[in-house]
Amino acid sequence: MYTYDFILKNGFLVDxxxxxxxxxxxxxxxxxxxxxxxxxxxxxxxxxxDLEGQLxxxxxxxxxxHLSTWLGGRTGHRMxxxxxxxxxxxxxxxxxxxxxxxxxxxxxxxxxTIEFVRPxxxxxxxxxxxxxxxxxxxxxxxxxxxxxxLLGGHYPLTPEATRLAIExxxxxxxxVAFHAGTKATGSNLNGFLEAIELASNNPLHLAHIxxxxxxxxxxxxxxxxxALQVLKEHPNITSEAYLxxxxxxxxxxxxxxxxxxxxxxxxxxGGYEATEAGMEQAILSGWAKVQVERAGExxxxxxxxxxxxxxxxxxxxxxxxxxxxEPRYCLATAKDDKNNFVVGSISTDxxxxxxxxxxxxxxxxxxxxxxxxxxxxxxxxxxxxxxxGLENKGVLEAxxxxxxxxxxxxxxxxxxxxxxxxLSMYKGYICGSGTNLITTAAGAEYVRSKGLNxxxxxxxxxxxxxxxx
Length: 469
Ligand SMILES: [Zn+2]
Hints:
It is a single chain. The chain is an alpha/beta fold. It has 2 domains: about 60-245 and about 325-390 and about 430-465, Alpha-Beta Barrel (TIM Barrel); about 250-320, no CATH class. The chain is built from 14 helices and 26 strands. Helix 4 (about 160-170) links the parallel strand 9 (about 145-150) and strand 10 (about 175-180). Bound molecules: zinc ion. Zinc ion binds near residues 66 and 91.
C-alpha cells in the first residue's frame, strides 16, 4: 500500500474558502486531498509531479455547457478537459444522448444534465398542461437528469406554461434553468424581466445573463444596470454569465432564409441581409464562423472553407461575435452592498461549442485587477460547485475531492485537469475515460444502467434551492 497515490509538488495554490495563495504540495489518496503542506515526504508515493510554481486551483466547474448529440457533445468532453474544466452542467439534454456520449467519449469528468422542454420533442405543444409538465419532470428525474431546461430564447413556451414549469419543478424538487424568452417576449432585456416575473419566488437558474443584454432594447450599459438591480432584488434567481464575445446558433437555411431567429438577427447586426445569400457573404467575410470538427474538437472556420462546410452539411453550428465587452465585464465583476457577486458564477455556454475560455478570459480580468485570483476561484469553482450541490468540491483542503486544475499563466491555458485524483488531461493529452454523472437518488439506478458512475446530490443542497429559501 502506498501512503499517497499522488503528490503535486511545488504548485502555487490559490483557494477561496481558506483565503490563501501560497507555494505548497498537495497529497492525494483515494480521490481525496489528504494533505496540503510544503515538502511532503516522497517516500511511498505512487506518482509525483513537479509543477514548478504553476498556478493550482480547485477544479473549474462550468455551470453552463453543451454535451448533447446536437451541440458537439462527443467533442465537448475533450474540449472541457483541455480547458481545465473538471465538472460541468449540460444545459439542454436530451439526457439519453448526453449519457450515451458521456459513456463512449467521456474523459473522466463530472457531468450533470437537465432535459429540454421543447414542443414536439418532450412536450406536445407550446402550452403544456400541469399534468404533462409534472409527468415530464418525474420521468427525467428517474432518468438521471437533475431537472429541466426551458429553451425560451430558441423554442419558446407560452408565458403561462413557463410559469407553471418553474412552479412544478420547485414542487417536484427538480432543478430548473431557463434561457429567457416566451411566446410573448424575446431573448433580450424584456425576456429577462419577464423571466424574473414568471419565477415569482420560486428557485430558478437564469442562464447566461449577458446574452439578454446586447443593447437591442436600450444602450447595453443601461440594460446591464437594470439587470443587476433586478438580480439584487431577487435572491431566488441564481445566475451565471460568460466571457466570450462569441454566441452559438444554427446556420441552417430553409427556403432561402436562416431558420433560427437568433441567426437572422446576428446577420443584421453584422450588416448582412437576413437571407441565405447574406449568410454566405457573412461566412466569406468571417463575421459568421462555422463550427467544424477537427482532431476530436470543434474549431471555427470562415472564408471558402466555411462556406463549403455549410453547403455540405446544412445544419452546422455557427458563431458570431455579438456579445459586447461592457456587459461581459460588468456581470463578471459587479457586487452588491454586502460585497457578494451579483452574478455568482462565470460560465462559458461552451463544451461542444468552441468558447471554453474561462482560463484566458478569467486571467484577463485578474491582470486588469478587476478580480483577484481568489475571486476568480470563487466564481469558477467554489460558487458553481455549490450551484450544483457539490459541497465537497471547489476547495483546496484535506478531506475535499481531489478535483484540481493546474494553469500555466504565461500560456494562459490548463496544463493538468484532475478529477477525483485521476488525470483527465496532462499537457494537452487526454488521459481519462468514462464519466461521473451527477444525479439525484431517484436517477442513480438509471445512471448505473447506462454504464456511468453516479455522483448523488440532494436538490436541497443546490444553491438554486438554497438561494430561494
Ligand atoms: Zn446554452
